[in-house]
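Journal club prep — side note

Before the paper discussion, L.F. wants everyone to see what a predicted structure for a comparable chain looks like in token form. Sequence:
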Amino acid sequence: MKFIGYWASQEQYSMQDLFRYVREAEKGGFTATMTSDHFHPWHHDGGFGNFTWIWLAVAAERTKNMKFVTGVTAPIFRYNPAIIAQAFASLDTLYPGRIALGLGTGEAMNEVSVGFDWPSPKIRLNRTIEAIQIIKKLWNTDENGKQKRNNEPNLDSNRILSNYFITFNGKYFKTKDCKLYTPPSYGNIPLYMAAAGSEAIKTAANYTNGLITISKPRQAIKVLDKFDKAAHEAGKDPSELEKIGKPKISYSEDYDKAFESSEFWRATEIEGVFNTEINNPMELQQKAEQEVSDEKLKNSTLIVTSIEDLIKPLEEYFDVGFTQIYVQSTSPDEVEFVQEFCKKVLPYFIDKS
């Protein structure tokens, strides 16, 4: 199945604008939105720092059936994993079947900024593994994301709650007699993980319902192969797991305007940026201006002057094995992008599904 969702950039747009965009996306035929979860933005000039969880609740209320997933929430420092489990279980009770959680090992801009040291990738991954274990235990799901016990939809506040308390003694996180008194309504909240390195890919295969990667199709072939292999080794069927991509797009009939609009994401192309200790967006922006060439920025973004020119490059994602992609637009006119994409590109993939 070829599934395309919409991407909502909390760092680039105001919450009010994002509400407008996501409603327009649903009106045009999108059925799911992935949204970033940051404290600081990648770019200082014109950046935003929306609190994603609040936006999620309001966006779900202001749409009819749109599903939402974070891309991604970092459970390593500023968010305690038990609180993440509580927050998304509560969202699921309000909007059953419309909420999913994407996790990742984070960036310094979001963790260092609120007072934490920035550890090695290995430590961040190990913290993420413990966090996933706690979240799944509190949701009471097995390794395949299925609920372990029968649980009626959480519609009766007076129903008898089972004595399901969690004590977890990890190296980084601990819980003691911890229980969600407002559990997920239907139990199976999809859980995904963003990963690039081999060990992180294995973690995604072992513990979650799917992989999120920003790799382009050609580079993604090896990533998806590693993921499938790790899933097999974990006793899972890779065909039942999602492989999620995130193409970055800028559309305008004026090429120069489309390219200029991609400037906001220049810092994401800094070499080794996801492991950098730099947390100040001003410094990231300055470093990007010095180190990331225009050519590299152009290669990172699908810059098009005709919306139909997106069909072929997006098809390449599905050809190499992606099951879902969420289109991240940094277009000069986002409403125009959504409307044109929904008229001329989205129907093509819906018909192909």
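L.F.'s comment for the group: The longest strand covers residues 3-8. Keep this in mind when we get to the figures.
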